[in-house]
User: Which sequence fits this backbone?
């Protein structure tokens, strides 16, 4: 797919705010017919610009999950080290997100835990066993500022 135009960017912006918006409402918002809007969405999907849709699930009123943000520094930044680390991360569903980073660390990971004890288990059984790690730095979140924000 070539460069995105203003309509494509507007479609993506609106889908980020509400991926369940009806095609008719989306089309009206961006100034297209429903069929033209749907055609653009399909092109964005097949070209890989839109990789999928997801549901953000509330863990429940009684569940107080804590997001832990983990900065990982590898011993080396060679292709082999990066590939081995990423393959190992994919085998652990406890690791909810993993980003290759620039700056002070090589990767940023996110795990959700119910307690410090649960994180201790994840740290011992998973994080410390990942290949090629030089340093692990973990931070516990206080709250998600953007969670539950109303769609615009």
Assistant:
């Amino acid at each position: 797919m070539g460069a995105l135009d203003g309509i494509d960017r507007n479609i993506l912006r609106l889908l980020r705010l509400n991926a369940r918006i009806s095609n008719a409402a989306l089309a009206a918002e961006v100034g297209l017919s429903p069929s033209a809007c749907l055609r653009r969405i399909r092109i964005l999907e097949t070209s890989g610009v839109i990789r999928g849709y997801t549901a953000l699930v509330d863990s429940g009123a009684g569940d107080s999950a804590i997001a832990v943000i983990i900065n990982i520094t590898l011993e080396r930044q060679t292709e082999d080290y990066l590939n081995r680390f990423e393959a190992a991360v994919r085998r652990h569903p406890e690791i909810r997100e993993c980003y290759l980073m620039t700056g002070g660390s090589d990767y940023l990971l996110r795990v959700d835990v119910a307690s410090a004890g649960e994180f201790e288990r994840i740290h011992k059984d998973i994080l410390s066993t990942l290949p090629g790690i030089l340093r692990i730095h973990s931070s516990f979140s206080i709250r998600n500022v953007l969670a539950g924000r109303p769609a615009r």
